Amino acid sequence: MTSGTTRTHLVWDWNGTLLDDTHAVIQATNAAFAEVEVAPITLEQYREMYTIPIPRFYERFLGRLPTEAEWERMDGVFHRYYTEQRVACGLTAGAEELLHEWQRAGRSQSLLSMYGHEQLVPVVRGYGIEPRFVRVEGRTGPSGGSKALHMERHFAALAGAGGVDGFSPENVVVIGDALDDAVAAAHVGARAVLYTGGSHSRSSLEGAGVPVVDSLGEAVALAETFSA
């Protein structure tokens, strides 16, 4: 598949970006915290304190890193509760139209998430947007880490056979809701735009030194200005 009328390729994040699931994440986080007797937190607290890797995020509330046994228990509870809550989540306002318009203009886009790959693909398919992407990839291996190495593998696939014609990292814009999305983009030589509707507060995101926007429409509009 070719990148069409512009060389700019979008790499979308899923949770908190295309999927409006932040409240489900908060509920699942609080269920995990209850496992180690940590008081529930608010959305504002979550956005101010969130960091990667996740055990470091938990440390901010526990006062210490969780033990291996605690981490495994908390992670299991989180994913169980999240799976229950996710079914009520919809796509972020305007996301479906933006994906459609970008594809209709002959431009390419892909999806890379830290949500487990085996869970991600059927979920994306269920929202009816899988055909909008040249590639849909979720996390493989243990949860809780950074996106950088996953982004590296994603870019290698996009540059390979069956990927995007003329693919080049400097012509890629990563759109996500977390500081880790900006870190992962920088790791592979791409640009990033960060969206305030997900896991971080605006003030936290502004520390990344990349553009910060309040809607996905603004993110796409900025990506268009990056076009070569």
TrEMBL record:
Enzyme Commission number(s) of this protein: 3.1.3.18
Domain of life: Bacteria
Keyword Hydrolase appears in the UniProt entry: yes
Matching InterPro entries: HAD-like_hydrolase_sf (IPR050155), HAD-like_sf (IPR036412), HAD_sf (IPR023214), PGP-like_dom2 (IPR023198)
One Pfam family here: Hydrolase
Keyword ATP-binding in record: no
Keywords annotated in UniProt: Hydrolase
Coiled coil: none
An example molecular function term from Gene Ontology annotations: phosphoglycolate phosphatase activity
Protein name as catalogued: Phosphoglycolate phosphatase (EC)
